[in-house]
Design a protein that fits this description.
- By secondary structure, the chain is an all-alpha fold.
- The chain is built from 2 helices and no strands.
- The longest helix is centred in the last third of the chain and has 59 residues.
Length: 112
């Protein structure tokens, strides 16, 4: 088998690996975005119109409940961010390898 054919097969394999890493990165990014949206959803957008004392009690209870949810989501978000960063690094490395193999393939294909 010639060097060009082996390089073409290696490039195809490298492209598949890159696609797999890119897919993993997209899944991690989507999960992370969902957690960020959940955090954003816990913010109070409107306060109900009621007696000021009842409103203050209601808001206090809600904030206590929301703080517990935020703590849970933040732990999940930290884990997801670490996974996303690792997936991004892996995808960047796979992209670089695919690019180098593509350049080698071009150079080998242009040889007289």
């Amino acid at each position: 088998m010639s060097s060009l054919k082996r390089l073409q097969k290696l490039k195809a394999l490298s492209d598949m690996i890159f696609d797999q890493h890119l897919s993993t990165l997209q899944v991690c990014a989507a999960a992370r975005a969902t957690s960020q949206q959940r955090l954003e959803g816990l913010r109070v957008k409107e306060t109900p119109a009621m007696d000021p004392i009842a409103q203050a009690q209601t808001m206090l209870r809600y904030e206590q409940w929301a703080d517990a949810r935020r703590a849970e989501i933040n732990i999940t978000l930290a884990r997801q961010t670490a996974e996303w960063m690792e997936a991004r690094k892996d995808a960047q490395r796979a992209f670089g390898r695919a690019q180098v193999l593509g350049q080698l393939q071009d150079k080998l294909g242009k040889k007289p």
